[in-house]
Design a protein that fits this description.
26% helix, 8 strands, 2,3-Dihydroxybiphenyl 1,2-Dioxygenase, domain 1
Length: 126
């Protein structure tokens, strides 16, 4: 078994596409118009091993889940970085809002930022 696709619930697919590509540096792999929304997947510029699907929160359960974990300050995603401090500084220069600045913990260095689409994202470095 392999992980090839991971979904992230977003409140606005176009806004998410801009943030994840222009700010975070992901590359769009697929964009297919559908009747109500679209199918959008992204890959990392560092290697397209796993696709990230930007899924709309149009379903009430998805919207409720997204709202609840955001309000409880639980990151929906974790991205790994070789240098969380450097990555965080570059993202701050692009206007990204961090809830938790780079912090040393027993499990490594981490930081948490807002993705502008209703989610918190964690950066992690071993």
């Amino acid at each position: 078994m392999q992980v090839k696709l991971v979904s992230v619930i977003v409140d606005d697919q176009d806004k998410a596409l801009r943030f994840y590509t222009e700010v975070l540096g992901f590359q769009k792999k697929t964009e297919i118009p559908l009747p109500e929304h679209k199918w959008v997947t992204l890959v990392s510029k560092d290697g397209p091993s796993v696709e990230l699907a930007l899924e709309t929160n149009a379903h009430p359960a998805a919207r409720a889940f997204q709202k609840a974990i955001y309000e409880d300050e639980i990151p929906l995603l974790t991205f790994f970085s070789d240098d969380v401090q450097k990555e965080s500084e570059a993202l701050v220069e692009k206007g990204v809002v961090f809830r938790v600045p780079p912090t040393q913990a027993a499990w490594g260095t981490y930081a948490v930022f807002e993705d502008t689409c209703g989610n918190l994202v964690q950066l992690h470095q071993n």
